[in-house]
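Section 5: illustrative case.
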């Protein structure tokens, strides 16, 4: 565990991506392969099974430290991070913990399946064994969630530097369901791959937001345009008798969409398709909220599949009959895709291109996006290869302008990490039918640092009530919120939920009379 703790301290002090890459490469070179594998997994978002929930961990901290529960809760609210709170409050220092892989595989993972009382006793024992400098890392493993400023690209580049392999090769080997082990780490950095997994997807090529209108892209004839569907990105894979469906998040999801798996296996030849899974109603896309009902189930029962049918709208062909097509131009890949899907079912079909010869015509089509149930327009250079990750220049997403609402700030609570001492997480509301305030959205992005500090000072002086770390504040300030969509919700008092809400601007020019009503939001549901 000592080497992993040292790495975390080095990464925390590092300034710039190059310093982090060098630190990681050095760590991989010195580490046991099993420990290195778990380091990679944790930095890429893997979380060992959660041992105890936040409330029980706080209770154990109070029990171990001898402090009252209310004081531990207050310290947690001030620090903003339970792992840091525990590291500061726990007494004494032990003999030290075993190496990272042994700690996780032999203690934490088996412990997650034990009865509650055993888990509590085991956590107390772990705290007593840990050295003072190991506590924070241990508590992060217990609570989950690493915020180290280390991106996936940084990890990949560090592995490439350590191994001498190309970054694209490391990226491909990490794609899909990579499980940490000594053998997996050796295979990750090996010069050759012995047995590639036939179900493994390719790294996804991601579009960048178009910063302004498409006029700066030059000749429209060099570009292909299609709808930006409101679904989930996925790859459908059929190779040598193996079929799989992967989400962009690296999760196999074929059991949730058995009809897509059947259509994939009915294709005339092996292929890897890239596209979007979209909920479909009659002759048009359904809402993303409908698709979420399918995503929330590990398996989709027939009733739900019939109630919420889906389509896979393919926009790229990455592999055909065992041949990697990614280096070929997009228009050539699209032609091959059309050949494969020519006699396919309606469930898997090609995402058709939009007809335009001038940017003004495409702009007019984009203005009708909401009428067609789509999020905007995708622009792709016809001669572009299929790249990996978010590489600017060849693929752009030109989304429609968000919905907006003027809402009043009702509640605030502290943020996390470096914002733990500031009220940065806000709850906003609109006016209800009886004139009451109805909370409709939580947002924490969109304000400048100066605005956050100014607002924090005002909120602390105008707090009406406190509910743990949450403050109910005087309704006074109006904010313009942007959001991508709206759906009915039984979980929210207002009866609806906003999708991806964020703060667009602080409307200092408006008073409470300008706040939107719940009826205005309900009208959007019928749009």
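Designed sequence:
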């Amino acid at each position: 565990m000592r080497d992993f703790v040292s790495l975390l301290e080095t990464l925390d002090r590092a300034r710039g991506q190059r310093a982090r890459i060098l630190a990681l490469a050095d760590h991989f070179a010195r580490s046991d392969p099993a420990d290195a594998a778990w380091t990679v997994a944790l930095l890429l978002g893997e979380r060992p099974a959660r041992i105890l929930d936040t409330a029980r961990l706080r209770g154990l901290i109070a029990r171990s430290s001898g402090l009252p529960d209310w004081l531990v809760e207050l310290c947690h609210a001030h620090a903003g991070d339970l792992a840091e709170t525990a590291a500061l409050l726990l007494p004494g220092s032990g003999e030290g913990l075993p190496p990272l892989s042994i700690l996780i595989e032999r203690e934490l993972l088996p412990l997650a399946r034990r009865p509650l009382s055993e888990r509590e006793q085991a956590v107390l024992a772990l705290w007593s064994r840990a050295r003072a400098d190991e506590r924070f890392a241990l508590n992060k493993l217990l609570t989950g969630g690493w915020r180290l400023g280390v991106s996936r690209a940084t990890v990949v580049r560090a592995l490439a530097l350590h191994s001498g392999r190309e970054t694209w090769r490391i990226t491909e080997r990490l794609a899909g369901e990579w499980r940490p082990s000594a053998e997996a780490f050796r295979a990750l950095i090996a010069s050759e791959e012995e047995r590639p997994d036939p179900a493994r997807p390719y790294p996804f090529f991601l579009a960048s937001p178009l910063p302004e209108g498409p006029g700066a892209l030059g000749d429209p004839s060099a570009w292909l345009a299609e709808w930006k569907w409101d679904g989930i990105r996925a790859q459908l894979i059929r190779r040598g008798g193996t079929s799989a469906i992967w989400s962009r998040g690296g999760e196999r999801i074929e059991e949730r969409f058995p009809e897509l798996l059947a259509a994939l296996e009915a294709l005339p030849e092996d292929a890897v398709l890239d596209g979007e899974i979209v909920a479909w109603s009659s002759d048009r896309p359904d809402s993303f909220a409908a698709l979420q009902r399918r995503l929330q189930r590990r398996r989709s029962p027939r009733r739900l599949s019939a109630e919420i049918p889906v389509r896979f709208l393919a926009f790229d062909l990455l592999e055909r009959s065992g041949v990697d097509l990614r280096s070929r131009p997009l228009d050539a890949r699209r032609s091959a895709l059309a050949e494969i899907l020519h006699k396919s079912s309606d469930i898997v079909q090609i995402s058709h291109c939009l007809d335009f010869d001038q940017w003004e015509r495409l702009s007019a089509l984009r203005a009708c996006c909401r009428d067609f149930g789509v999020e905007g327009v995708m622009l792709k250079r016809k001669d572009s290869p299929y790249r990996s990750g978010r590489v600017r220049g060849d693929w752009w997403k030109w989304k429609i302008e968000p919905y907006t609402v003027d809402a009043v700030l009702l509640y605030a609570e502290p943020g996390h990490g470096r914002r733990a001492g500031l009220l940065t997480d806000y709850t906003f509301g609109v006016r209800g039918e009886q004139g009451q305030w109805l909370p409709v959205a939580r947002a924490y992005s969109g304000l400048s640092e100066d605005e956050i500090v100014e607002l924090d000072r005002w909120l602390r002086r105008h707090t009406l009530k406190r509910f743990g770390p949450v403050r109910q504040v005087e309704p006074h300030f109006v904010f313009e919120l942007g959001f991508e969509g709206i759906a009915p919700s039984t979980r929210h008092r207002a009866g609806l939920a906003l999708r991806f809400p964020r703060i667009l601007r602080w409307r200092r020019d408006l008073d409470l009379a300008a706040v939107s009503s719940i009826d205005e939001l309900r009208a959007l549901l019928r749009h």
